[in-house]
Amino acid sequence: MPTPSLPQLLLNGLLLGLGAAAPIGPVNVEIARRSLRRGFRAGFLLGCGAVTIDVTYAILTSLGIRPLLGRPLVMNFLAIAGAAVLLYLATLCFLSAARQFRTPTALTTPATESDQPAERHYLTGLAMTSLNPMTLAFWCIVVPGLASQWSANPARDLPWVCLGVFLGAISWVIAFATIMSWLGRRAKRATCLIADIAGGAMLLAFALSRIL
């Protein structure tokens, strides 16, 4: 097997990062909702929490602890704990929508920057991603299989792939949070109400899919 070049490894990692970050899932639902309602910083910080977990899993995979992370007991725990987090966030979405129904004048107020501590958004991103069994399966099963095809020495080359993962995932977070916050500044408050209802329904569906 030929030795891959550094640009090839980075490109492979970048595509993996985009592949992990871009699909519609709980994290992107919450990035969209928070960016619309509270501005770029809230969505970006939540996304940074998710990216932290993606890169951490990629590093752990490169260190060869895949068997430990792939145990059924670990996956079952993550499924239950992750569902609990998503149910909590879905409840917050519905409560926010209910408050807007009780205060109709709020629907015409432009979205504002985050009024919550910055670390709260980041920690939410950490929790949502670290407790997602699909994320664990992606990094511990899919990625090692791909790495073995890319390189004859994955342990040596995976750190460069991890760097590409970070660049791809953080690029998606920046672009997505920017677009959502731009829409939030220009749309009526009703857009945020729709985001709360739709986001809550999607988070609830994701939670139920993990425990049923």
Report on this structure:
This protein is mainly α and about 210 residues long. Mean pLDDT is about 75; it is low at about 105-115. Helix 3 crosses helix 6 (about 120-130). It has helices spanning about 5-20, 25-40, 40-60, 65-70, 70-100, 120-130, 135-150, 155-185, 190-210. It has one domain (about 5-210).
Structural features:
single chain, 212 residues, mainly alpha, 9 helices, 0% strand, globular
Low-pLDDT stretches are 105-114
Roughly what percent helix? over 70%
Classify the secondary structure makeup into a structural class: mainly alpha
Work out the number of β strands. 0
Largest sheet: none
Question: How big is the Rg?
Answer: 19 Å
User: What is the element string, with H for helices and E for strands?
Assistant: HHHHHHHHH
Look at the structure and give the mean pLDDT: 76
Shape: globular
Oligomeric assembly = single chain
Helical segment tally? Answer: 9
Q: Strand content of the residues, in percent? A: under 5%
**Distance between termini?**
44 Å
How many domains, as an integer? 1
Q: What is the topology?
A:
Elements: H1 6-21, H2 26-38, H3 40-62, H4 66-69, H5 72-102, H6 118-130, H7 133-150, H8 154-186, H9 189-211
